[in-house]
Predict the structure of Spore coat protein F.
Amino acid sequence: MSNHLAWHETLEIHELVAFQSIGLQKLKKSLPEVTDPELRRLYQKAIQGTTRNLRDLLVFFPEMPPFKDREDLDEMRSDSEEEEDREDPMTGFFAGELLGLAKTTVRNYGIAITETATPSVRKVLKRQLSECIDSHEEVFRFMHQRSFYPAYNLETLLKNDMRLAQRALSGRED
């Protein structure tokens, strides 16, 4: 066994942390608008569960290949002040939300196509899937050009995940 996480585990944890960090921020932003007591309880439960998930997953970051045996991991965690988004701080959040929607939509279309028996429906779904893939690429390029998604630099990508998760965890919950 290696003394660090496997690369595929690292990438899966990256996806989970990024997705849940955006989700936690959305839940916290929406909570003040939720007036139904039962729905509000469900939102609070989702916030607690997602918070717990993020904290559990962040524990693994020091074991990831780019960080293993690094003395400066704590310093990298505190770099958030210097590396804050150069634009409106919400731009990265909104772009990440849009990218998550695009990824989920592509997956859903892929599944739907495998369940389709009618040729005309399959044709429409394939066209729509292709359009969704193009949309995903456009959002990814937007994020990559603005350094919100440094896909070719795993260390920076994971540092961004830690910052995003810390921002989501520290955000208000009304």
